[in-house]
Amino acid sequence: MRDITVFSGGAHPRLAADICSHLGTRPHPARVTRFANDCLEVQLPANCRERDVFIIQPLVPPVQENLVELLLMLDAARGASAARTTVVMPHYAYARSDKKDAPRISIGGRLVADLLVTAGADRVLTMALHSPQVHGFFSVPVDHLHALRELAAYFRRYDLSGTVVVSPDLGYAKQAAAFARLLGVGVAMGAKQRLSDDRVVIGSVIGDVAGRDVIVVDDEIARGTTVLELLDRLRELGAGSVRVACTHGLFAAGAVERIGGRPEVEEIVCTDTVPLPEAGPGSGLHVLSVAPAFAEAMRRIHDGESVSALFDAP
Question: Which NCBIfam families does the UniProt record give (predicted)?
Fold first, then answer.
């Protein structure tokens, strides 16, 4: 069997180290040189020839910088005769650009998928894509993990009688329903309309939330505008305490403080798919590790075993 070699980009070295710790190997950080004309050069510091290569690099801010670094790492691995190269991309930022909903706009999710394959990706391992159709943008195999089991295991510590899971919009309703089944509770969802990147309106909540404790679950939280709008509707409908959960905690523009500062919010739970900003004291942020899930998926890919047990809908 071919040896496994893991390279990490500069986007999230801590997660790469944690994944490799569970794999029983060590990551090889790529050497990145920036020239006077602002161009980048990448050198992979370990042998790739006929190896099973994994490159760990989430697309997180600065997204364009990390994307180019990933493309150069793929090109370097292909040029070094890697037997197979798998992109381990815990967060795919361009997944939100998945449709043409205005005239003359780009569909970045498809374009970046093509770029990754052209640069040398033979396989992609990712988590919680923003929408299911993004999977089809890739012309190579994609293993699509989710963090619902990790989140459910965390929330089972609480008394969930009288609790309901709420999705902020209909687009995440299927995943929210699966999460609710794992917890054995009911599900509700918001009717959301996005007016711009930082402005949303939730006109109503479909389902019974009055007098019930709520777990709000979504795939990612960036500025937090959707969650804050949903909190307003939940308060108007007489919901009780609120816990907020997501897979990708981007938390831009002070989102942790703004969400955690609401009196009804008891805690915010996310995973470590992206590097997390420093949260102030009393923010109530709790971070779950997805390193074991990624390490097991990588082991199964390397050994030619099924990965479906890790990402099939519960």
Answer: PRK01259.1, ribP_PPkin
